[in-house]
Amino acid sequence: MQTRRTMMKSALLGSAALVLGRNGAQGQEAPASETIYSGGSPWGNVLGWRLGSQAWTFRLFTFEEAVKKIASLGLRVIEAGPGQKVRPGSDLVLSVDMTKAQKYLVRSILADNDVTMPTFAAMDITPQAMEFALDMGIETLVIEPPYDYLPGYDKLAQQYGVNLVIHNHPTPSLYADYKVTLEKLKDLSPRTGICLDTGHFRRSGFEPVEVARAMEGKIFTLHVKDLSKKEPGPDCHDVPWGTGVCNIAGVMAEMKRQNFKGVFLAEYEHNWENSLPEVGECARFFNEQSRKLCME
């Protein structure tokens, strides 16, 4: 006789089969003969997780090149930000000030590669930035403003129906201590939440799993990093997920416990000229861990 637990597993397996079927080869791990993983994260999709990359991972390249690199991994999500050149041979850069034709070009690049841009790192939240988000189909803008800007930004988020997430950089940045971020959120609407950056919190002396647990219900997106060592320094850098000190498997398990549905973004800040194989290993790890979580 099937128990509720086994019935739930069967249902998840059925959902995964549908995802794998829709994705075709994307749902298969790259053969051993291939250098770079290209299987995406179909098991993450089953959990309601969208895996992609922050364009900063490919900051030495154009937006179009970054989109193509992400798509080559079988991933379908990018988070971009202002200042990156849009495509080779052009001086056009990403900006909330883009014309209608320029925004159409960016959306065409995304559509041609079957990639979406649900989040965008904004420098400042203005009505123009909000209009840009609506025009581009962006759900969430990433911010890291002075504390006194937050109430005004939150009002714009409510007015336009676009979410905001507060991002953290390491000490001595304003939001390096997660307790500060939680305190600032108390007087804001549900439109404003958190973009949890695992590596930056680890650099600030916090265990990412503990931070994720403390921020339950407030996390909208994650910037995922695994680091070579806990102590900041020149030899502390990104490594493929699961091989460093940030306990990415534990973070994923905690997010499943919270029934989180949202975006995980690789932000790989090492080996800038040729990081794609390592980002691929991050995606492989994420998909495999997601599979294990689906089986629990």
Task: Please compute the radius of gyration using only Cα atoms.
Answer: 19 Å
Give the H and E element order: HHEHEHEHEHEHEHHEEEHEH
Please identify which CATH superfamily we are dealing with.
Divalent-metal-dependent TIM barrel enzymes
Architecture in CATH? Alpha-Beta Barrel
Number of strands: 10
Looking at the structure, the CATH topology is TIM Barrel
Approximate helicity band: 40-55%
What is the CATH level 1 assignment?
Alpha Beta
How many domains in all? 1
Mean pLDDT over the residues: 91
Taken as a percent bin, the fraction of beta residues is 15-25%
Q: How widely separated are the two ends?
A: 19 Å
Number of helices: 11
Sequence stretches where pLDDT stays below 50 over 5 or more residues: 1-9, 21-33
